[in-house]
Design goal:
single chain; TIM Barrel; alpha/beta; globular; eight-stranded mixed beta sheet; about 20% helix; about 25% strand; binds iron/sulfur cluster; about 150 residues; 8 strands
Length: about 150
Amino acid sequence: MNSVLRYSSEEIVWQEVPGETSLAYTITGCPVGCKGCHSVDTWPTGSGIELLPDYFSQRLHDYQGLITCVLFLGGEWHPAALQTLLKITKAQGLKTCLYTGLESVPSYLERELDYLKTGPWIASRGGLDSRATNQRFMHLSSGELLNVRFWE
Ligand code: SF4
């Protein structure tokens, strides 16, 4: 019933998507449950602020010319709501990225994404800056694995 994405933070980031200036939303309610997650405070469903399409469109307008990409840190658990916001982003000529703790997302979401980070957090293997990581950062249209960009 709750199909609206909610977010706990909205910020501009440079490192999460190499080569892009991204408006990043941390989406609350992640159900993956990684041991050692640094964002446990964002797990509760219903926490955070609603990320409604009208507000989101206004933010893209506010940041016009300043950002090149929108990054969603989670949100695939409400795929229809996420798809709507991804379509709005693409319609503005911006790139899109999703960080998910899952190994894959539905193809209808992939179609709206330029970049996709997959895989849960496993402390012993580290994140994208670790060569031992289980996580993958893909440029979807080329199929290129971009993990190396996090090692530079
Ligand atoms: S996917 Fe990310 S936010 Fe979700 S539990 Fe794992 S590390 Fe935490």
